[in-house]
Design brief:
This protein is an alpha+beta fold and 674 residues long. Among the domains are: 50-113, no CATH class; 154-286, Butyryl-CoA Dehydrogenase, subunit A, domain 2, CATH 2.40.110; 451-466 and 474-620, Up-down Bundle (Butyryl-CoA Dehydrogenase, subunit A, domain 3). It contains 25 helices and eleven strands. Strands 1, 2, 3, 5, 6 and 9 form a six-stranded mixed beta sheet that branches. Strand 2 and strand 3 (180-184) form a beta hairpin. Helix 16 (489-516) crosses helix 17 (521-527) and helix 16 (489-516) packs across helix 20. The radius of gyration is 27 Å and the shape is globular. The structure holds ligand LKMIAJQL and flavin-adenine dinucleotide. GO terms for molecular function: acyl-CoA oxidase activity; FAD binding; fatty acid binding.
Length: 674
């Protein structure tokens, strides 16, 4: 793939890697894009959106003050928004790209090194209107939101509570006299905290509050609340709003705080798809399942799996290209310095990143299809598939974000000192992805949600009741005993399910034993949570291994033999990597022997050697343009050292030969005059 900038000198090592690649890179790009036509459309859109005039920053973003950074991000958000509105609609509107094509999401990364202050508007405000409003409410709010007259965010978390939604303190009390809700923040800990764009950007937000009517509390519900004047942008009376301050990342997202002093909103600003308040204050519950108001969170959890797969692909592209360009040390005395990609330990660090990016992307595509089925069911009034989907999306969100964050950090380690430079973009990619492990449901908390479902499934299996698809394996592994070992890919997937079943079984025993000693079920559960998290993790790994293996086989059915071979090598590498990582579990729950472990390790090392010649081709196949990668180390042409120097020279400290602090402090210190 070209860097879309015409012919330029490419680093010789990278050029040689590309010449030696065993497969046609475009073939894998098409597979990852979901077909050649999608790739063509994506590239067309990238070509006319990613123009220098829109993207160029004279001073690197990271050298700006927090205020300047925010203002630059707002400027670019508006340019980006206008571009989407004016130009991209020529391609047939957003629907053309399909919600799962994520073209716009990729392009956005070229505009924002960190994050757009409008991300929450498109990412959560609009989806919540779609998911939580009646048709009548949608016709009022959607056109205003899509035309950006109303700019919104999602304010659920408070200073005192994020995880435990039922513990939120903000109240919305219905007043039938005026047909209004009175929003109030009774304590400091009830202040909304974290919502992206809330600090300075938005004029509306979705507020999740405890609904009170006729003297009764009906739990948390979402409301649309105007917080700033549309003309002056001043906070409205009764609203206290601001920005929460610097963070590890997300520094252009103006995450904010918000408090209400008996602030009134019309009755119809309650999002009424799942529950309603009649004019006289009567509460009408329409949600038979009970958790439909958590729908936006489920949607974002699904989106996040794709999000982290893409970010891991970016990090892997940077680290693999850099490792082909960088030469260091010597393998044998007197030999020329090898490319660091030739060190087996470097391959061990990086090839799992490529394989995981594939595994997560294919799993995310599969999850999206499953989600679409659940949404269709819900439209037809069926909510039976929701508990299983909640369990599935919770664990996939937890594991994908955690794995991606760890592996992105590993990519940074693999780039040595230069990986620590902001201009490598690895620190920013990491700071963005590590937040995904926390937001939209913390890692541990979500795995415990999955564990709840798994324990129930185990009990159903014991009772001889039918199980839903993602846990149907429990019936097979129900009887005690070790899972037979078979070192084929299918065998490793089966063993992963066996491990998950073994761990779930151990949790059930542990809880029951504790209950027998006189503990309450809740206490027995609490004491078993370390094991429960591990069981949910094992279940999720088995699902990812299974989906990755079967989806890769399905997708490559019509591929050329070389593409099929390299894709097979990657899936096998992934399965072997995790078998070796979890060897203790396999020894405990499967019939794997010492010789099998030696064979697994040997095969894993053979796979590293087989993948080595195709490594650069594999990251080129992600086809991530230089503007989107934003990295001195990872650009297509491999001009690493030139770019590092060019970026260093842009530092404001290099604008003058002597900084004034010399005269103000250093010189007086040197002369003993301070
Ligand atoms: C253009 C598009 C671009 C898209 C880009 C995407 C990226 C966007 C990036 C944006 C960046 C940042 C945004 C961040 C936003 C936020 O973080 S918003 C705040 C999110 N907050 C959370 O996620 C809180 C997590 N907590 C919870 O979800 C719940 O409180 C928790 C599930 C932990 C517990 O809830 P409870 O009400 O207490 O329920 P519990 O008693 O434990 O369980 C009761 C019962 O309900 C079942 N349950 C729970 N949740 C769900 C659900 N969502 N769906 C279905 N069922 C659910 C649970 O399993 C129990 O069932 P059981 O049968 O009784 O066991
Ligand atoms: C970058 C970023 C952006 C965000 N954007 C938004 C936004 O736009 N809108 C919004 O509403 N919110 C937003 N959030 C908030 C986010 O959703 C919460 O921070 C997240 O859900 C975690 O909740 P918490 O902060 O209350 O963590 P806590 O629940 O306090 O977690 C702290 C620790 O306690 C543990 N813990 C908590 N409960 C349990 C339990 N039941 N069992 C075992 N362990 C437990 C956790 O595992 C964790 O280790 C954002 C957060 C971040 C970091």
């Amino acid at each position: 793939m070209s860097d879309n900038k015409g012919v330029r000198r490419v680093n010789e090592d990278l050029a040689r890697e590309r010449a030696n690649c065993s497969f046609d890179v475009r073939e894998i790009t098409f597979l990852l894009d979901g077909g050649e036509n999608n790739t063509i459309t994506r590239k067309k859109i990238e070509d006319f959106t990613l123009t220098d005039e829109l993207l160029s920053d004279k001073v690197p973003d990271e050298c700006l003050s927090p205020k300047e950074k925010y203002e630059n991000a707002v400027r670019k958000s508006c340019l980006f928004g206008k571009l989407v509105k004016d130009k991209l609609l020529e391609f047939g509107g957003l629907e053309t790209f399909g919600p799962n094509s994520f073209v716009l999401r990729r392009i956005a990364d070229a505009f924002f090194k960190e994050i757009s202050p409008l991300l929450l508007h498109l990412g959560m405000f609009v989806p919540t209107i779609l998911g939580q409003c009646t048709a009548e409410q949608q016709s009022e709010w959607l056109p205003r939101a899509l035309s950006m007259q109303v700019i919104g965010t999602y304010a659920q978390t408070e200073l005192g509570h994020g995880t435990f939604i039922r513990g939120l303190e903000t109240t919305a009390t219905y007043d039938p006299e005026t047909e209004e809700f009175v929003l109030h923040s009774p304590t400091l800990s009830s202040f909304k905290w974290w919502a992206g764009g809330l600090g300075k950007t938005v004029n509306h937000c979705i507020v999740v509050a405890q609904l009170h009517t006729k003297g009764q509390c009906h739990g948390t519900h979402p409301f649309i609340v105007q917080i700033r004047d549309l003309e002056t942008h001043q906070p409205l009376p009764g609203i206290k709003v601001g920005e929460i301050g610097p963070k590890l990342g997300f520094n252009t997202a103006d995450n904010g705080f918000l408090g209400f002093d008996k602030y009134r909103i019309p009755r119809m600003n309650m999002m009424m798809k799942n529950a309603q308040i009649l004019k006289d204050g009567t509460y009408v519950k329409l949600d038979r399942h009970g958790k439909m108001t958590y729908g936006t969170m489920v949607f974002i959890r699904v989106m996040v799996v794709n999000e982290v797969a893409f970010n891991l692909a970016k990090a892997a592209t940077i680290a693999v290209r850099y490792s082909a360009v960088r030469r260091q040390s010597e393998k044998k005395p007197g030999e020329p310095e090898p490319q660091i990609l030739d060190y087996v330990t470097q391959q061990h660090k990086l090839f799992i990143c490529i394989a995981t990016a594939h595994a997560l992307q294919l799993t995310s595509d599969w999850l999206w299809r499953t989600f679409s089925g659940v949404v269709t069911d819900i439209k037809h009034g069926k909510t039976d598939s929701l508990p299983e989907f909640h369990a599935l999306s919770s664990c996939l969100k937890a594991i994908s974000t955690s794995d991606a964050a760890l592996l992105i950090e590993q990519c940074r380690h693999s780039c040595g000192g230069h990986g620590y430079m902001m201009s490598s973009n690895l620190p920013l990619i990491y700071s963005f992805v590590t937040a995904t492990r926390t937001y939209e449901g913390d890692y541990t908390v979500l795995l415990l949600q999955t564990a709840r479902f798994l324990i129930k499934a185990w009990e159903q299996a014991e009772a001889g009741k039918p199980l839903t698809p993602t846990v149907s394996y429990l019936t097979k592994y129900f009887k005690d005993g070790r899972v037979p070992w078979d070192s084929t890919s299918e065998g490793i997937v089966n063993a992963a399910y066996g491990v998950a079943a073994g761990k779930i079984s151990a949790c059930v025993k542990s809880i029951r034993n504790r209950v027998k000693t006189g503990l309450s079920y809740e206490d027995a559960w609490d004491l078993t949570t370390v094991q429960l998290v591990a069981a949910a993790e094992a279940h999720c790994r088995a699902v990812i291994c299974d989906v990755y293996r079967s989806e890769a086989v399905r997708l490559t059915e019509k591929s050329s033999p070389n593409v099929r071979a390299v894709m097979r090598q990657l899936t096998t590498l992934y399965l072997h990597y995790w078998a070796l990582e979890r060897i203790g579990d396999l020894l405990r729950y499967s019939a794997v022997s010492e010789e099998d472990v030696v064979a697994l390790q040997q095969k894993y090392e053979e796979l590293l050697a087989l993948i080595r010649p195709d490594a650069v081709g594999l990251v080129d196949a992600f086809d991530i343009r230089d503007e989107i990668l934003n990295s001195t180390l990872g650009a297509y042409d491999g001009r690493v050292y030139e770019r590092l120097m060019e970026e260093a020279l842009k530092s404001p400290l290099n604008a003058e030969p002597v900084n004034r602090s010399f005269h103000m402090y250093l010189k007086p210190l040197m002369q003993g005059k301070l």
